[in-house]
Amino acid sequence: MQATEVVSGSGLAVGRMAVVVAGELxxxxxxxxxxxxxxxxxxxxxxxxxxxxGESAHVLVVGGPTNPNGDIYWQVADDPFPGCCAPFGxxxxxxxxxxxxxxxxxxxxxxxxxxxTGNQLLGAGVMETAxxxxxxxxxxxxxxxxxxxxxxxxxxxxxxxxxxxxxLCIVDNAVALYGPAVTALFxxxxxxxxxxxxxxxxxxxxxxxxxxWGPGSFMPIPIDxxxxxxxxxxxxxxxxxxxxxxxx
Length: 248
Prior knowledge:
The protein is mainly β. It contains four helices and 14 strands. It has two domains: 17-104, no CATH class; 118-246, no CATH class.
């Protein structure tokens, strides 16, 4: 049987940002079984559920479209670090009134050659900035702190060493940083690092394809059948540093 072609004139597309224009927009795990309430109520504090999206929420379209029963659905990421273990949710393109539920979001993209502070990146949005820049290197500057605090977690990400490095770095107390170029700033003798640093970094590091959910060290929650794509997405949205130079 030939599949029905999904035609949408909304301007929405996989890999682009969108904004919720409905008062509230429910996410479902499977649009072909919209009455299935799976993942809509988290069973454990360490788990992620498919939350209802409010008006003006920004999402990144990661799949679709599909049109069960004539209703067009798109799969979306509602957070740059979605967590485990729900899949990405699907949302309707239109409301029952046929008015749009989500529409394309026009982005004002930063110049990758102009240094951003951590606060500027956070203010612009991680998913938004990652969508704008793709895999291109960009400049980042600010106060970087690195530490090796004891961490008890429900979950972790396995795969690339940088994704679960015991050294944690952050710029301007706003955005986490990853990769040996920045974690090498950690000084064991000083029990940390704190200083102004000029950075070159990128999103969507190629090693993200190896990211998977793994059990944490504290009351690890079950990760059977944990989605691979959400772990890979969290890695793709991470700021991977390729060079770190102390500011003069």
